[in-house]
Design brief:
This protein is α+β, with helices and mostly antiparallel strands. It has 2 domains: about 80 residues, Elongation Factor Tu (Ef-tu), domain 3; about 90 residues, Elongation Factor Tu (Ef-tu), domain 3, CATH 2.40.30. The chain is built from 3 helices and 12 strands. Strands 1-2-5-4-3-6 form a 6-stranded antiparallel barrel. It is globular.
């Protein structure tokens, strides 16, 4: 489990194409410190398993399903990525509960800049819109953020200078894809409430 607080900006060193998969080699001196085979590291919000590491670099295999459902398939050597290790039990929950299981991708459609912050607009897949609410939480490329405005097919987020400086969201431009993970609590509530709502609807008919 992650919290959406990015620990460092890493870099894609190499991408090896495999049958129905890809092997990524990434550089991240902070997240590789003490890393072991089988550990988890979130890369742009996608939970990956360390299959090898040497020095400040680690290797992770990414299956076709993940490449199709996230923006990782578009990464290449030299690209910067957000990296985060799982939170330790008893550690601080600085953002919100993040699984590292991407629900879909959106596209940055606009950026509005001011002296101390930026408002970024992101397109929202139709299937995810019901989970996104104003002032609720959402994870964008692994960054825990608060929704400013929630529309039928978009949402906006406000980025402070620290987020702009320390994550990929500081240089992503309109047209760039981003990974989205909605609040897990919203998904579980929907699952639990759905049968009762269906029964209530049937009773009224």
């Amino acid at each position: 489990m992650f919290t959406g607080i990015v620990e460092e900006l890493g870099e894609v060193v190499a991408v090896e194409e495999l049958p129905d998969a890809a092997r990524f080699r990434l550089r991240g001196p902070v997240v590789t410190e003490g890393a072991r085979h089988g550990d988890s590291i979130a890369v742009n919000g996608v939970c990956l398993t360390v299959v090898g590491h040497e020095g400040a670099e680690f290797t992770a295999d990414v299956m076709a399903e993940t490449l199709d459902r996230s923006s990782l398939g578009g990464l290449g050597p030299g690209d910067r990525v957000n990296l985060e290790r799982p939170t330790a039990v008893g550690g601080r929950l600085g953002g919100h509960l993040v699984q590292g299981h991407v629900d879909g991708t959106g596209e940055i459609t606009a950026r509005k800049t001011s002296d101390n912050w930026e408002i970024v607009t992101v397109s929202l897949p139709a299937g995810l819109a019901r989970y996104v609410v104003e002032k609720g939480s959402i994870t964008v490329d692994g960054v825990s953020l608060t929704v400013v405005e929630a529309g039928p097919d978009f949402f906006t987020i406000s980025l402070i200078p620290t987020t702009l400086a320390l994550t990929t969201l500081g240089f992503k431009q309109p047209g760039d894809r981003v990974n989205l993970e909605v609040d897990i609590v919203a998904k579980y509530v929907e699952r639990l409430v759905a049968p009762h709502a269906a029964r209530a609807g049937g009773a009224r008919e």
